[in-house]
Specification:
The structure holds two protein chains of two kinds.
Chain A lengths: L3 E7 L2 E6 L7 E6 L25 E4 L4 E5 L12 H10 L6 E6 L14 H28 L7 E3 L2 E4 L2 E4 H5 L3 E6 L1 E3 L7 E3 L23 H6 L14 E6 L8 E3 L12 E5 L2 E6 L2 H14 L1 E2 L11 H7 L9 E6 L2 H6 L3 E9 L11 E6 L5 E5 L4 H12 L6 E5 L17 H11 L3 E4 L2 H7 L6 E9 L5 E10 L8 H6 L33 E8 L24 H19 L3 H7 L4 H13 L20 E11 L2 E12 L4 E12 L6 H20 L28 E6 L19 H13 L10 H9 L1
Parallel strand pairs in A: 3-10, 5-6, 13-23, 21-22, 25-26, 29-30
Antiparallel strand pairs in A: 1-2, 2-10, 3-4, 4-5, 7-8, 8-9, 11-12, 13-16, 14-17, 15-16, 18-26, 19-24, 20-21, 20-23, 24-25, 27-28, 28-29
Chain B lengths: L1 E5 L2 E5 L7 H8 L18 E4 L2 E4 L12 E3 L4 H8 L4 H6 L3 H8 L9 H14 L5 H9 L13 H17 L3
Parallel strand pairs in B: 1-5
Antiparallel strand pairs in B: 1-2, 3-4, 3-5
Helix pairs in contact in B: 4-7
The chains are: A alpha+beta, B alpha+beta.
Chain lengths: 778, 174
């Protein structure tokens, strides 16, 4: 290898050429040194293996490209569709030229960070890397062709001007070029590395690739059976393992059960602190053996949870909300003074229970810990570099000892955006203990009882109206446990180091107990607004002998789901108090033209009857089925959303059916209308599932929702007719998110429709028959 | 030792007769599309066809499959080719219309449940080539030991996928 020569620098990126010819040729985009001003550890000191390619973008002589991202696919398709489109757009190459997407593996991808906000902030790494690359290619072409840069243009992968032209591939043929671009951040921090600087971005008004309904190329190998899922990985000589988890979320181990060698000849039990592993070469043997060991393992008794039936009362009267300083949300005018002068007031307490991410396939990981301490972990994580940090911290080893490889797996909606989903650390600890590769597969009850959950939330909303029915004041107090505990459960059970539990003094703001107001305020016509968030500790965590309790984790639109639901449900009730149509009421209370536009569209598309709630037929005693309509809106990540649900309530049985769901989205730029439509359909239906069915049940010690019978989700027979209207506004020049936002809209629209149908407010979800009947009887 | 016929090939199976078919397929035969979901026949992620009828491999002892034909998603293209007398080469180069429709309609989100979904839909379309929405919903909800669950809630796309597959099968193409 010879020393590379610098060819030129452009916009802070530097192009180097290694001084030898190679057979094919390539240009790779590499990590630059961080700006010297920063005081955190520079990327290269804990970077990727230097012998591995770490490039965001590779251009090959045959005009094909490889892109790499530390983010993964969890069913959003974005890294295979939107990311390719956005890179192709910046480079002006056909999207098909990007033939390969490498994602997630910590030794083969450049940037780390979590799989969320894929189009919001995370895509900027690849987008900027592409912009740097395009500018460098233009400069290189100008030199090679002898044509001034200003005369060159790129179209369809060809750089042309002054009567001459060259393809990207021809530019790199026979060369070994490396473009070094500036970065900041720390690879294994929660957010990973960010590409720095400001290369010129292509004007969004001239987009041609973005906006096309391209298909997701990862689906064919998945559906044909060729793709290797994390579930399918086999390591030579591996042992299958099951973990016998404690009897409660606060129990310690008294004595581990034994295996009867005559019955299970090849099974061994490994105990590390409170972590009890059962291992055998044969998976069925270990499943049966783990049941026997589990039945014979003794745990200390523990009662530290309020039980799900008492949860709201617990939040109302048992939690000291002064322990954690309150956070403020939107503020305007003087809500307290104005509220005293109100003509009419609506006030109510709203409640969202704990939800489970509940992947269809429980979490599974495989670890291979070598005698020299090096760890290779095969898993399905939304933040592999942060997981790498957590594993190294647990083992007390340098991060350079740990490699995380990622594979397709069951979507779990944010559960691992802080690295772990469960089982990863257990596989590592058991592999280290037995000196062999180990595959830990959680069974369904493990996944329901020992994973994190989306936190419960309670909101007190007070809305006062003037004599004309206009909102004078909006006051909201949102209270609940935190939403981001990234401590791996196996490390906790084994008593090994982790990052800190959520707390008021956690160095990481994300892992704080502060309850921020995450729901963007949208009713900008309201003169007096006071929103506040009140945080606390995770329920049962401080009381738990193992520091566990109900561990919480973000899910889809974390905190915003919990705060948008009460706001929108209350706005619908306030509209009724004002005698106003709920859609018109919303239009009248926002200055945001984009909301007015999608709400008007929603009215047309949903078959909406313009009138106040409740419906004229509400509560009619003779009716076997009562029907109603309800609406909701949300602003998230530059995406404007509006939803209408039409429901049918059967008072006799307490059954609520959603018959139609209409959703209108203005995400600004629509990157891929086909993928967006599918994401919105599915995300909104998952929201229907949460609204109708989902609540984590628990007693005083343990989660009692252990399978699909006790944590039911939406079935296909229950799906409403779904209509998705994509109403993009590309002139705003930003990408709005698609996959997660749609999830939050259904619940408040459904309770509003329930109110419209019955005249009775339902201020909590899920609308299960028992609750529905109690509301109707009240 | 028992004999198991999977996707047209006979295998000698070493696993004990009480081992659920799912673990025999995955661990002994390397047939990986049936996925572990719940182990209780509650979700359908592990579904296979047993003599053409959908069943849950997670609770079916391998002994119960002896002497019967097991079909997984890996075997759907050959099953289609045999039904339509397509050449061996065509069978190798083509997906079953249900798989093709799943790709064409971009049905999956994460996709983990879709192997079981495609098995159930294949069973449905072999018996009912032109199902209504209600037929499809019934097949995927009430016809078996449990509903086929999709946590991503890709149900609207699945409905499109089934109708698309029915059209492909009617054409006899692909």
């Amino acid at each position: 290898m010879s020393t590379p020569d610098t060819v030129f620098s452009i916009y802070g990126a530097t192009l180097n050429r290694r001084s030898f010819l190679v057979a094919s040729g390539s240009l790779v985009v590499a990590l630059g040194m961080k700006p010297a001003a920063s005081n955190t550890v520079a990327a290269p000191t804990n970077s990727l293996d230097a012998t591995q390619p770490s490039s965001w973008i590779e251009i090959h002589a045959d005009n094909t490209l490889v892109i790499r991202t530390g983010k993964c696919d969890f069913g959003q398709s974005s890294i295979y569709t939107a990311y390719r489109q956005i890179v192709a757009e910046e480079l002006d190459v056909p999207v098909e030229a990007i033939t390969t997407v490498i994602s997630g593996d910590t030794d083969r991808t450049p940037d780390g960070g979590g799989t969320f906000g894929l189009l919001r902030t995370n895509v900027m790494n690849l987008r900027k890397a592409a912009a740097y690359t395009r500018e460098a290619a233009l400069e290189l072409a100008a030199r090679n062709l002898g044509v001034p840069r200003t005369q060159l243009k790129i179209a369809n992968g060809v750089i042309a001007g002054g009567g001459k032209s060259v393809t990207y591939g021809a530019l790199v043929a026979g060369e070994s070029l490396q473009l070094t671009i500036p970065v900041r951040g720390n690879l294994t921090d929660f957010g990973g590395l960010q590409v720095a600087g400001d290369p010129p971005l292509k004007p969004t008004s001239s987009y041609t690739v973005v906006g096309q309904p391209i298909k997701n190329p990862s689906l064919r190998p998945k559906m044909s059976g060729e793709a290797l899922w994390v579930n399918d990985v086999k390591l030579p000589g591996m042992l299958h393992a099951r973990v016998v988890h404690p009897a409660t979320l606060g129990s310690t181990l008294v004595s581990a059960g034994k295996v009867d060698k005559s019955q299970f000849p090849n099974t061994q039990v490994v105990v590390i602190g409170n972590l009890v592993g059962v291992l055998a070469p044969d998976e069925w043997e270990v499943i049966l053996a783990a049941q026997v060991v589990g039945a014979n393992t003794k745990w200390s008794e523990w009662k530290g949870l309020p039980g799900h039936r008492n949860l709201l009362e617990h939040l109302q009267s048992k939690v000291d909300w002064n322990e954690i300083p309150a956070a403020k949300g939107a503020q305007a005018g003087d809500a307290v003074a104005a509220s005293a002068k109100a003509s009419k007031t609506h006030s109510g307490t709203y409640f969202v229970p704990y939800h489970k991410h509940a992947p269809i396939s429980p979490t599974v990981s495989l670890a291979d810990v070598k005698p020299n301490g090096s760890v290779t972990l095969h898993t399905h994580s939304q933040n592999p570099q942060f997981l790498r940090m957590a594993i190294a911290k647990m083992l007390g080893r340098p991060e350079t000892d740990v490699v995380i490889r990622t594979y397709p797996g069951a979507s779990h909606f944010g559960r691992s955006n802080g690295g772990n989903a469960g089982s990863e650390d257990e596989a590592v600890l058991l592999s280290r203990a037995v000196g062999k590769p180990v595959r830990v597969q959680w069974m369904r009850p493990d996944d329901m009882q020992w994973s994190t959950q989306s936190s419960a939330s309670m909101s007190k909303i007070r809305i006062s109206l003037d004599e004309k029915g206009k909102i004078q004041t909006y006051q909201a107090d949102h209270s609940g446990p935190p939403m981001q505990d990234d401590r791996p459960i196996g490390a906790l059970l084994a008593g090994l180091p982790t990052i800190e539990a959520p707390g008021p003094n956690n160095a990481s703001r994300l892992h704080s107990t502060t309850m921020n107001v995450a729901d963007r305020w949208v009713y900008t016509e309201v003169p007096n607004v006071a929103e506040a968030g009140h945080g606390t500790y995770q329920i049962g965590q401080r009381e738990s002998a193992i520091g566990v309790g109900l561990r919480d984790h973000s899910m889809r639109t974390p905190i915003q789901f919990q705060q948008n639901f009460p706001r929108e449900a209350a706005i619908s009730e306030a509209a009724a108090l004002a005698g106003a149509d709920p859609i018109q009421f919303r239009i009248d209370h926002t200055k945001e033209e984009r909301f007015k536009t999608i709400l008007a569209r929603l009215r047309e598309e949903s078959g909406w009857q313009t009138r106040p709630s409740p419906a004229p037929s509400a509560g009619a005693k003779e009716s076997k089925i009562l029907r109603g309509q309800g609406a909701s809106i949300m602003l998230r990540d530059n995406g404007y959303w509006a939803c209408a649900c039409h429901v049918a309530v059967t008072p006799e049985t307490g059954e609520v059916r959603v018959e139609r769901l209409t959703i209108v989205v203005d995400p600004g730029i629509v990157v891929n209308p086909l993928q967006l439509k599918r994401q919105v359909q599915a995300g909104s239906l998952m929201g229907v599932s949460q609204a109708l069915h989902e609540e984590v049940m628990f007693d005083e010690g343990a989660i009692t929702s252990t399978h699909w019978g006790t944590y039911p989700i939406l079935t296909m027979a229950e799906m409403p007719e779904v209509k998705v209207v994509i109403a993009g506004r590309p002139e705003f020049g930003v990408y709005g998110q698609g996959s997660e936002s749609a999830n939050a809209l259904a619940a408040p629209a459904i309770v509003a429709a329930f109110f419209d149908a019955t005249g009775r407010p339902a201020r909590r979800i899920p609308l299960r028959p028992e609750y529905v009947k109690s509301v109707l009887a009240s | 030792m028992s004999m198991l016929k999977v996707n047209g090939t006979e295998h000698d199976v070493r696993s004990s007769p009480d081992t659920p078919l799912l673990y025999v397929l995955r661990n002994e035969l390397g047939i990986m599309t049936p996925k572990f979901g719940c182990g209780m026949a509650q979700c359908g992620a592990c579904s296979v066809l047993l003599d053409g009828a959908e069943m849950r491999a997670c609770i079916t002892p391998v002994a119960a499959a002896e002497g019967k034909e097991v079909t997984t998603v890996e075997g759907l293209p050959a099953r289609w080719a045999k039904q339509r007398n397509l050449s061996a080469q065509t069978a190798q180069d083509t997906l079953h219309p249900v798989q093709e429709a799943w790709v064409e309609e971009q049905v999956p989100q994460c996709g983990i449940c879709q192997f079981g979904m495609m098995i159930k839909v294949t069973e449905l379309l072999e018996a009912n080539p032109k199902p209504t929405d209600a037929d499809i919903k019934a097949a995927l909800t009430t016809s078996g030991p449990s509903p086929h669950l999709c946590r991503c809630a890709s149900y609207a796309a699945i409905l499109d996928g089934v109708h698309h597959a029915a059209r492909l099968m009617a054409k006899g193409a692909k």
